[in-house]
Design goal:
Length: 168
Amino acid sequence: MARVMTIHGYPPDAVRADYARAGLGLGLCGLPLAVIDLPLAITVVLALAVGLFAFYGLRIAAQQSMNLRATDDAIQSSGWRRVRLAWGELSSVSLAYYSIRREGGEGWMQLRLTGKGGTLRIESTLDGFDAIARKAIRSAADNGLELDRTTRANLHLLGLSVPGEEDA
């Protein structure tokens, strides 16, 4: 039986703004630390902020370096953190939407897949996100997993049908 493989990654355009935010935060918080003698309390606050922005930048670098390989049998990440999940062994599938604005509209989705191999979190800026979400939902149905209300609603936002709902 032929194993179809697709390779997915985060395009540079998808992470460019994140890198800019991390760099801006590092500059705005780190520059005063480097050039001004500040009171201890302010130094501590700015140093913590520098640490957070550095962590954020490293997280973006890890995300960009990750590639996902999806086959008929499994999905596997490469990069800093390697995870392999067999589709037939998924124990949890959820799809969350994170909005930038209170009214909604601008934001991103995150698909969370859990199984014996660990957990994969995949953001909607990934090339081929819809295809991976579609395969994950089919696998969840095949595995008899119940999807929560939020996941089902977010799948509808993506234009994906939820197996078994047409029967209800």
